[in-house]
Amino acid sequence: MGRKLLARVSRDEHIALDEHNFFRNLHKSVPLSLNKDMVLEARKFAKKISVTGNLTHESPDKLKQIGQGENLGLVCSKVELSAARVVRKVIDTW
Predict the structure, then answer these.
(1) pTM over 0.85
(2) Cα 6 to chain center, whole Å?
(3) Using a CB cutoff of 8 Å and minimum separation of 24, what contacts does 84-87 make?
(4) In angstroms, how far apart are the furthest CA atoms of the chain?
(5) What is the pLDDT of residue 5?
(6) pLDDT tens, 33-80?
(7) Which residue in 47, 61, 79, 83 has the fewest CB atoms around it within 10 Å?
(8) 89 and 81 Cβ atoms separated by less than 8 Å
(9) What domain of life does the native source organism fall in (predicted)?
């Protein structure tokens, strides 16, 4: 699968962003936007988590160095959840 194909942002990724921004707005936080390179990195990270079962934060020094932050969460369910529901469940754990 080529990088160009992988760089397309999915409908679920847009829904997750909209849901996340809904909650950011409640706290008067600036809305986030999608960046294709970051989407690719997030997908790789999600794959790694699904394989290892370990959800770990990047070091604060590295995040500062690359000018990024992170919001992590893990949801398990016996049934398939919509992207919006996953975001709400993760935010509920924060």
Answers:
(1) no
(2) 16
(3) 84/15, 84/16, 84/18, 84/19, 86/16, 87/15, 87/16, 87/19, 87/20, 87/23
(4) 39
(5) 42
(6) 988 888 888 888 888 888 998 888 888 998 899 888 888 888 888 999
(7) 79
(8) yes
(9) Eukaryota
d(CA 20, CA 30): 11
Nearest to 87 by CA among 38, 32, 8: 32
- In the predicted structure, residue 21 carries a pLDDT above the cut 70: yes
C-alpha torsion angle, residues 79, 26, 66, 6 (rounded to 10): 40
Cβ burial, residue 87 (10 Å; 0-12/13-18/19+) = buried
